[in-house]
């Protein structure tokens, strides 16, 4: 697997369009593109934005190598003048985005590029790829962690991830969204996040007996001794052998810390309750019972409802692929062009009404209830609108405009959700440590009402348009018909 | 995004087990691990194996850097003696696998590692990650291509893929499975596969009018001029404007080759039929109608049943994520240990009967009907069993042993499906070009009966155990009870 420069990680049509813009002397025309998405994954009422650090790294390192240019020249599509443009290509624009780990909602601009059209177009595909992927997994992790309540969730999905990056950046996103650690050693190294794991069935099978295997493991790792008990027969062999080994450790005077068993097959509710009784009777009331086996937020909820005695959840396939909703449908749409004096709003009309975009250069504001700190609504406004928390604020639903919310002065706070990432091509964003992003995400999740965190059919959070933006949109729709 | 060395792309427990094996003087014990899977994706009767080239590259480049060792030392789990083992780590074993692009079936060993246990264990996670991902996407692509019949299928999913690698290696796998090209430029460069694409809605929106945008595009790209017609109104604006531009090209005497329109929203059956009439009436009977919009094998089948006039299909999200079945559940299980004289069979018993593994060092044979060249069955045998096409062959179903198939001498051929990839740590496999693998895959698919290629509820292909392997398995089960 070669070392990868991601400059060519783009759709071919970005390059054919770029050459067309150059040919028509439009390459330097400044435009505004928004990234937004239309539906939250898995029926959630919110998503967690993630991937900004990798987007910033990608843009900072954009360079067409001579090797890239030789390849492009071989395609018999591009002229020398365009290859020269690529040879000198640097991102010179602005990029704004919500901080990583933020709670976000459909249709709002979670990232905005203001740049010459050639640059804005080239970066579309990689931005979408990176943010779509990490936001998907971070959102799924937040759901799994919500189901697990106070229990630890471990990310165990590398072997089922859609390629190496899906495992690596998926582990990062899973930790941001709520996982306590990952099994992925490379992700642990790259992002300084905790790694965990003990042993597999092959360990047990490579010894003459399960008891020998458990003894050997405990001998090597008296701390953090979690024994996998389902290789042969969980209740008749695995748990009794584990208890025998714990007895031997106790007899040797070893302190039993972070020890216990892992279940990886069979009925986890039944087996965990039976195993709990056996462990408790043997005096191991603090032994951990961890489980892994096709877990997701729904099965964890159901197992807890049935009284399963599991306090640590290893979640693999269903988290790392977001199995029930494996694509975050983020899109990147032209919103405005700059004519030298002002932004001319642009809008895509669609046969599907929910696909009509929001025109203009915009800002994203979040309105909090001052007393509780919970989110009242998000407000998409034009970039030059001003708001004042000392004045009353009226919000209305852009589809059902009779639905209105009146906020009295000083009862709410307004937050500008966009932070600058690039200004005039210079990176001005320094990514926080992944663990810091994780803690920020926890605080973000606390700004949602529990009604909006419910896994099934949660309460929608309002995303409103400002009056000027709403009027602009209606005006443009009217003129197009 | 840093350049990646994948040596640490493994689960933490592989390293804790490796240290354990070293501690217990078992590090050099030679073992046999099989990779196999239990269910085909998306209800298919078969899968396409893919990813072997990347597995071989990964194993060939396995080296723990000092940076890796410093990181591992920081985890307070590993001793200096073990870090020394890693410092000198090289893969010294054998690896066999079915060639990339092969048709494969559940429960058969599609890859086999024979190596010292420490080595065999370390490589488990990355092997599974790579083969699971690429086999998943190649299989999905074969299904989509089957639905599209003689039409071209283009892979357009990069922006929705689960991270950069999912887009890059997913494009490779999609081409192996049946796609004619990809939009992914980096994949095009890396694997020498065709890239395609024309323009997006933003191209149209950045010009004063749709007609201006189409003219500008046609001016630049008179060859391969595929115009996206749904930015404003497909039938009232897009198609008429496209026809006007084709008229202008014709008036200029330009040869119209590989030209036409692309539909990206709305009802594709209705719009394509209406557009076909408009194009035909204007004299553009050879204009291509391509479509993209949430396509998969089921929708393509249904659109064709409704007489949609589409002959080129751009497939994105549903292919690159295998949306309805986003994880290929390949596993990697210990099958035997070598005691210096012979292979001792190993087997994992499970509470789930279909999870009981096949013990022993095995070979994978494929039985073809000599006359038709179609697959009769696959046969999993022990490595030292000999077969002779000049003798009668009796096959039986390992679950329903009364189901037997008798093959007369010289009516069948036997193929050994495993090719050597590493021998004594030396790579002996040179990967064919991706396009060659694609052509091999086409020939492989032709060895299936149409009844087994059907998208819904296809006929199962038999995977049988040899008599000696069956008896060994029953014997081991009997001894464990």
From TrEMBL, chains A, B:
Q: Which InterPro entries match?
A: Aldolase_TIM, NAPRTase_C, NAPRTase_N, Nic_PRibTrfase-Fam, Nic_PRibTrfase_pncB, Nicotinate_pribotase-like_C
* Gene Ontology biological process: NAD+ biosynthetic process via the salvage pathway
Q: What does the UniProt record tell us about how this protein is modified after translation? A: Transiently phosphorylated on a His residue during the reaction cycle. Phosphorylation strongly increases the affinity for substrates and increases the rate of nicotinate D-ribonucleotide production. Dephosphorylation regenerates the low-affinity form of the enzyme, leading to product release.
Q: Name one GO cellular component term.
A: cytosol
Name of the protein in its database record: Nicotinate phosphoribosyltransferase
Q: Its catalytic activity?
A: 5-phospho-alpha-D-ribose 1-diphosphate + nicotinate + ATP + H2O = nicotinate beta-D-ribonucleotide + ADP + phosphate + diphosphate
Name the Pfam families on file: NAPRTase_C, NAPRTase_N
Q: What is the lineage of its organism?
A: Bacteria, Bacillati, Bacillota, Clostridia, Eubacteriales
- Give every Nicotinate phosphoribosyltransferase C-terminal domain span: 361-473
Q: Does the keyword DNA-binding apply?
A: no
- State the organism of origin: Anaerotalea alkaliphila
What family classification does the UniProt entry report for this protein? Belongs to the NAPRTase family.
